[in-house]
Structure formats: C-alpha cells, structure tokens
Write a structure and sequence with these properties.
Radius of gyration: 31 Å
Order of helices and strands: HHHHHHHH
Largest sheet: none
Number of strands: 0
Helix content: 40-55%
C-alpha cells in the first residue's frame, strides 16, 4: 500500500515538473527584459583629490631636484605615507617627511656605508643609534624611522606654518639645512599621487 501511494505521489510530481519544463516559465510576453551584450568598460570610483594647497603652503624655495624612483623607493614612499596616516598627521607632514628622506637617502633604506657613512647614520632618514633614534634594526625599518621622525616633528611648535626646510632641519639638525628645500615639489607630487592609494 505504501508503495502505491509513494509511486502515485512521485508520478504526479514528475508530471508537474514535465509540464512546467514543456510550458516554460509563466511570463508576461508584453514586458520582456532584454540583455545588452555590449561590453562595458570597468569604471573605477574617483578617489578624493588631495588638496594641493596644503602640500606646499609657502611655495617652493629655490631650484627643485628630481630623481627617478625604483620600485623599492616607491615602496618606501608608501611606507612613509602609511606611517604618517597611522600617526594621525596630514599630507603636509608626509611632504616634509618624504622631502627629508629624499635629501638624506634618496628614499633608499641605507645600512651602514663604512667609510662613506656619516658617523653611524642609517635608514631612510639617516638617523643615528648613538643619538637616541633607536637601534639599527629599528631605524632601518621604514615605519619605525618615519614614526620617529614624525614624533620629532610634532614637538616642533608651529611646524605646520614653517617653510619645509626649517621644519625638517629642526628635527634632523643637519650640517646642510637648506638642502631639504630642493625636494619639496617632488615630495608634494609623490604625496598627491600616493596619499589616497
């Protein structure tokens, strides 16, 4: 008896399925949707633009220098920007940081250079372990060295309103304080390009 009921139920279900397949879906033929098969170009949402007036508020000072960057140098730019954001600082702080690193190391994470070394200066910012910047391992870490530089920059009263070279020099205490200025435009261009990436 159970077998007869089960076979009847399965038979009715099979007929309902076959009828549905044969008849097709129930649709209103007056409102058919059409599919456009024309290829569509991928559209990327525009990222907010960096306020370029914030990048160089005083205008550049003197002749400007530029260098072509390797992939490693671009990665260091991105690390400086990431550390700046993590420190809660703005685009101008990134410009000051990148210009400083351009002057100090051309954005190369330099280790000890032997006789060519300036004392024990190392890393992107040529910070010295003997001056309290951190260990060699720390100051050759781009995030750490940038954070250390930014910590020094935060302690400079009014750094936001200073010309770049004065702000950088106050932190770095370089023998060549005016040399930072030559990198301001390139640093600003790099921040404009990579800040919102």
């Amino acid at each position: 008896m159970n077998t007869i009921i089960r076979n009847s139920v399965l038979g009715i279900a099979g007929l309902a399925f076959a009828g549905g397949v044969a008849a097709g879906p129930l649709t209103d033929t007056t409102h058919r949707a059409t599919v456009d098969t024309t290829p569509v170009a991928a559209v990327q949402a525009d990222k907010p633009a960096v306020d370029k007036a914030k990048l160089i508020p005083h205008g550049v000072q003197g002749a400007q220098s530029r260098v072509d960057l390797s992939d490693e140098q671009v990665a260091n730019v991105k690390a400086i920007i990431a550390a700046t954001k993590k420190a809660g600082m703005d685009e101008r702080a990134a410009v000051v940081s990148i210009a400083t690193a351009l002057q100090e190391s051309k954005l190369e994470n330099l280790g000890h250079l032997g006789d060519r070394n300036d004392h024990d200066s190392q890393g992107l910012f040529q910070q010295r372990p003997s001056s309290g910047w951190g260990t060699v391992e720390q100051i050759t870490n781009p995030e750490y060295s940038t954070t250390a530089f930014l910590k020094g920059l935060k302690q400079v009263d009014g750094w936001q309103d200073m010309p770049l070279t004065k702000a950088a020099q106050t932190v770095q205490v370089s023998a060549y304080p005016d040399h930072y200025a030559q990198w301001e435009q390139m640093a600003a261009d790099l921040v404009a390009e990579h800040w919102n990436n």
